[in-house]
């Protein structure tokens, strides 16, 4: 997670036209909204533009690292050329077939490829090999400061092991010496269905936009089932559990819960008693999340099944009977609901949206059985 944000502030500077006067200049710095860290804490200079240009920390071993990279790059290139030479080396024998089957031209082409590969190195570079001086051990090690033995240790000011290893080039010991690290670029990718090859997710071409041209993820269309705090589950005793059902689409829907057929691969360790009636869900309304009041729609809910309702969410009860004395309580069920395809109905065609009845397998794990 990236918690750094750009903050703006004013800085008093002398007026270039009249040095006796002072003008305000807008500058930018980095600040963390979680730990209140700012780039000014480590002495990073403020920038005149909000787009960046922040000063990187200088690495004292940058020159040696660059030398090692050049050495191993040249070594890898030489090994690649040696493998190509071995690949195109002439084997003894079979030369009497060269004129009969026209292999002379093929050999000439191979020699031409080898000569082109040799051009990758600069002229005279084959005889030149970079020499990297060996690392010399330190004879004089810097002594610890006297404050370590005289002053008490404040753990809030000492960097943790994970923070030190996150910067292997510097490994700061104090939290005041921590610098922000470069964040890896996150690329949004398009996704297609493996069966029908339709686009499920497709971002916009503008890289600065966070919107999607197509967003057909199942999380935004399939009703969501969540578990409330669970009671104690006792072996061979009926337990009442409250589940939450959420409608993610912008049109009302009805959900029916059905038991699944038991197979040899089934991992169910309990029996579940599902409500027989349909569960009606209201349409999703983002504004209703922040408003208070009663719902305008009148749902005739069974109070023994639906215990709570608000906007597009309901809470209903199910009964679970564990069948194993040890282990987790696992059940499976079949969720059947009506899905209205709003994307296929175009305004120009004036067609009614298609309504399809879909089914999904749901597997629930209620945790271990109480002793």
From TrEMBL:
Region annotated Disordered, chain positions: 1-20
Keywords, alphabetical: Acetylation, Coiled coil, Cytoplasm, Cytoskeleton, Isopeptide bond, Phosphoprotein, Ubl conjugation
An annotated GO cellular component: myofibril
Main location: cytoplasm
A Pfam family recorded for this sequence: Dynactin_p62
Zinc is among the record's keywords: no
Biased composition (Polar residues): 1-12
Family annotation (InterPro entries): DCTN4
Record bears the keyword Metal-binding: no
Intracellular or extracellular location(s): Cytoplasm, Cell cortex; Cytoplasm, Cytoskeleton, Microtubule organizing center, Centrosome; Cytoplasm, Cytoskeleton, Stress fiber; Cytoplasm, Myofibril
Domain of life of the native organism: Eukaryota
Family: Belongs to the dynactin subunit 4 family.
Subunit details: Subunit of dynactin, a multiprotein complex part of a tripartite complex with dynein and a adapter, such as BICDL1, BICD2 or HOOK3. The dynactin complex is built around ACTR1A/ACTB filament and consists of an actin-related filament composed of a shoulder domain, a pointed end and a barbed end. Its length is defined by its flexible shoulder domain. The soulder is composed of 2 DCTN1 subunits, 4 DCTN2 and 2 DCTN3. The 4 DCNT2 (via N-terminus) bind the ACTR1A filament and act as molecular rulers to determine the length. The pointed end is important for binding dynein-dynactin cargo adapters.
Name of the protein this chain belongs to: Dynactin subunit 4
Gene name of this polypeptide: LOC106176827
